Amino acid sequence: xxxxxxxxxxxxxxxxxxxxxxxxxxxxxxxxxxxxxxxxxxxxxxxxxxxxxxxxxxxxxxxxxxxxxxxxxxxxxxxxxxxxxxxxxxxxx
Length: 93
What we know:
The protein is mostly helical. It has helices at residues 2-35, 43-92. The protein is rod-shaped, with a radius of gyration of 21 Å.
């Protein structure tokens, strides 16, 4: 059971790292979009920029939710692993 827990922990750690990377990428894309705006923008491009900004914000929020999920699962698995280790050592003692 310890091996399955360790593999699950590695999976959630990977998920956590990917969520952080995608969130940072979405926020960087938003900042680049804002810094690249000019003063002579037409209304059509403002509408498309607003749609892109909304999509990037949703991506960042989704990544934040995935990060919180993966973090909670990791904490739960660490607690489970600690209990399994204590149970296995108490069996040998």
